[in-house]
Design goal:
About 60% of the residues lie in helices and about 15% in strands. About 0% of the residues have low confidence. The chain is built from 16 helices and 16 strands. The two termini are about 30 Å apart. By secondary structure, it is α/β, with parallel strands linked by helices.
Length: about 650
Amino acid sequence: MLKFHRLTLLDFGPYRGEKTLTIPDHPGVMLILGDNGRGKTHLLNAFRYALLGTVYRRYGRARSELRSLANLETATAIGFAEFSVTLGFSKDGDRYEVIRHFTDRDGSNRETLILSKNDEPMNRQAADLELRRIMPEAIHQFFLFDSEVLQRYEQLVDEDQSTGEDLKEAIERILGVPILQNARTDVELVAKELARQIQIAAERHGETARQGQALGDLNASIEANESSARTLEEDIERWETEVQDVEREMTRHEQLSGLITRRNLLQEQLTGLEAQQIEAADQLKEVGRDAWRGALQPMVGPVLAELDTQLGRLRSRATELAYSRAVLTRLRDNAELCPTCGHSLTAADQKDLMRRLQSETAADEERNAERLIGLLEIERERIRATAAEQAVITAVIAADRERRRLVLAISDNRVQLEEISDQIRLAGGDGVDLKALTGRHSNLTRLLDRKRRDLGAVRTDLEEQRGRRAQISAKLTRVGGVVDPHITEKNDLVSQLKELFGEAVDLYRQRLRANVEREATRLFLLMRHEQSYTGLRINARYGLDIIYEDGSVVTNRATGEEQIVALALMGALQHSAPVQGPIVIDMPLGRLDQDHKYRVIAALPEMSEQVILLAFEGEFELNRARRDLMGRLVGERQLVRVSGRNTDIREVVS
C-alpha cells in the first residue's frame, strides 16, 4: 500500500521559500484549511507533480505552463522561475523520496528528476518506470481528485451516453481488469500465428488447399479489421483528448467568468472605497482644525476647576451681602421688631444689630464681589474656548479611525485584485468564445460517438471472424497428415485458453461490480441519512443508482447526492482494487447541508487509511468535525496568508 510521509515545497506556487507538510503515519484524516487563493489546489498539484511529473489545473492540464507555478515574489527577486517539490513516501515496505526540480534560469525550461529507493538513487529511465508502476497516470484521479473529477462521475450513470467511456476504462484499470484482457489478447496473437501455420500446411495438400485458401482469406480479413480497429482506437483516443480539452476549456471559461465577475466587483468596491477615503480625509481636515486645542485640555482642566472654586466662594459671599442688605432695610423700616424672627428688640439690641449689619453690607464690597464674579466668568469662558471640547476630540478620533479603516480596506482590496488578476492571466485572459466552444464540443461528441459505434461494429465482426477461424483451424487439424500434431495440440490449448480468459474477464467484472456495489452502498449509507434509501445499484459502466425501499431508482438526483455517490464510489474502488493508497481531496462541501456535511467528514476514514481533506476556512465548524471524527483526526494544518503571494503552512494545536 502507498503511504505519504512528507511533502516539501520550495518556491512552489504561493509557498515562498521552503515549506514542509508532515503527514502522520497512523491511519486517519488530516484537515488542511485555507481561504480562497491560499494554495489548496497547489498542494494537490504538488502531489501530482511529484508522482506524475504533470500538473493539472482546475481547468485542465497545464504541462506547458510549469514556469507559472514558480512563486512570483521569488521569481521577481531572482529574475527567473525556479521551484522544486520533494515527496517522501513508502510502498509495500520500500521507502522512496522523489525530487522534481524546475528552472528556466538560462531561458530554456529544464526539469530534473531524482528518485531514491531505500536511500539508493535510481537513473532517470528506471525512475520513470518505477513511478509509473507506483502511480499510473490513468488511475491517479482516484487518489488525487477534486470536484471536477466528481462531476465527471455523473456521465457513468446514463448508459446511453458515450462520454463516460474513458472514465469506465480508467475504473477498470484500477480494478485490474486489463491484466486479464491483456492475457486474452496475448492468447489471440498466438491463435493468429497458429492459424497462419495451419493455413500454410493446408495449402500444401490438394484435398485441403481450398480450405487453406479460405483460412488465408479469413486471416487477411481479420488483419484488415484489426488494422481498422487500431486506427479507430487511435482516432477515438485523439478525439477523447480533444473532447476533454474542450470540456476543460468550457470549465475554465466558467471559472474564468466567475473570476472576472469577482474582479469587476472588487474594482467597483475599490472605486467606492477610494471615494470614501477622500471624504474621510476632508472630514478629518475639517474636524482637525481645532484638534490642536486638545493638547491644552490637561493644563486647562485644573485652571478651570480653580476658577469654579473661586466663583463659588464669591457667589456665596455675594449672596450673604445681599441678604444682610435686605435685613438692614427691613430693620430701618421697623426697628422695634427683629426682621428675621419678629421678636421685640430693646434699644440696645437695635443699636448693636444696626452696627453689625452696616459693617456687613459695605456697598463697595458688594460691588467688588459682583465685578470679580463677572471678570472670573469672562476669564473662564475665554480659557474654555481656548481648549477643544471633548466632542471635537471624539469627532477627530472617529474621523481618524475611519480613515485608517479605509486605508486597510483599500490595501486588502488591491491585494485581492492583484491575486485575481494573476489567476485570470494564468487562465488565459478575458477572451473566450463560449458559443464556439459549445459548438465544437457538440461536433466532437457526435464524431466520437460515430467512431465508437464503428469500432463496436468492427469488434463484433472480429469476434465472428475469429470464431470462424477457430472452427476452420480446428477442422483442418482433424484431417490426418495435414497439420503437425504439435501445432494441433497448441491450437487445442489456445482454444481452451481463449474460452477460459473470455469467461474469466466476464466473471471478474461481475465480481468486481458486486464488490464495488456492496462497499459503495456501505459508504453511501454512512454518508447519506435517508431512511427510504436502501442502497446503491451498479451498472455496466460502474455508475451507481440510488435505490428506494421498493426497488425503484431515484431520479433527478440533487447535486449533493451526486457528490455523496461519487465519494462512495471512490472509497469503494480503494477497497476493491489491487492498488491502494492515500486519498487527497480538494473539493468544496458547500453543496451539502449541515447534517450530510458532517456525515461525510465522519465517513472519510472509511474511504482509505490515509485521507487528506483540503477545505475552505470556515466551511464547517471545526470542533464538531473533531468530535464526529472520534479520534481519527490525525492532524490539522492551516494555510496562513503572509502576503498576497506567500502562504505559510502552520500546525493547528487544538
